[in-house]
Amino acid sequence: MAIGILGGTFDPVHNAHLAMARAALEALALERVLFLPTGAPRYRAPALASGAHRVAMLRLAIAGEPRFTVDERELAPGHSGYTIDTLAGFTQRPVLLLGADQYAKFETWHRWREILERADLAVFARPGSEFRDGRARQVPFVPMDVSASGIRARLARGESIAGLVPPAVADYIARHRLYGHP
């Protein structure tokens, strides 16, 4: 059985991330899904919350689901942040779980052809979309109207994030005053 890798900043982790992981478990018959928070790669802006806070929120979000695990390897000092370097640490061939937006830009990724040699790809397909290039499996998924940037904006305005993140994550954000939380 395969292992799925769901990478991202998880700044913060939210209910759509969890729904995507559940959809992948079912559609791809995965043994487990690794949530892989990114470090501070050179090719994009860093996360607002520290790696330690993001890992803590992930652990709270996945509590009670034994098939979900947090993998901190990209947070290690000196890690490049490139997917190909992360994949070098896996002994079995994982399934890289991608959103349709990420997949559309996949050929711009660092050493993307080598990624195809080390991992299978699965894409969270929006209703009515199909990928006909034969490189990726589709995971049926109805998009949810929730994003980490939207959650951060709501918090900065003092608005509730109930229903957007697991309650334990909302409590953690409030307790640690993350993202402009009052």
Can you give a write-up of this model?
The protein is α/β, with parallel strands linked by helices and 182 residues long. The chain has a single domain, classed as 3-Layer(aba) Sandwich (Rossmann fold), CATH 3.40.50.620. The chain is 34% helix and 17% strand. It has seven helices and six strands. The chain has helices at residues 15-28, 51-62, 83-87, 100-104, 112-118, 148-156, 167-176, and strands at residues 3-8, 32-37, 68-70, 95-99, 120-125, 136-140. It has a six-stranded parallel sheet. Helix 1 links the parallel strand 1 and strand 2 (32-37). It is globular, with a radius of gyration of 16 Å. The model has no long low-confidence stretch (mean pLDDT 92).
Number of helices: 7
Number of domains: 1
Arithmetic mean of pLDDT: 92
Name of the CATH first level: Alpha Beta
Show unreliable segments: none
Count of DSSP strands: 6
Largest sheet: 6 strands, parallel
In which range does the helix fraction lie? Answer: 25-40%
The structural class is alpha/beta
User: Would you identify the CATH H-level superfamily?
Assistant: HUPs
Summarize the structure in short:
Helix content is about 35%, strand content about 15%.
Key attributes of the depicted protein:
single chain; 182 residues; alpha/beta; Rossmann fold; six-stranded parallel sheet; 7 helices; globular
What's the helix and strand layout?
Elements (H helix, E strand, L loop, with lengths): L2 E6 L6 H14 L3 E6 L13 H12 L5 E3 L12 H5 L7 E5 H5 L7 H7 L1 E6 L10 E5 L7 H9 L10 H10 L6
Parallel strand pairs: 1-2, 1-4, 2-3, 4-5, 5-6
Helix pairs in contact: 2-7
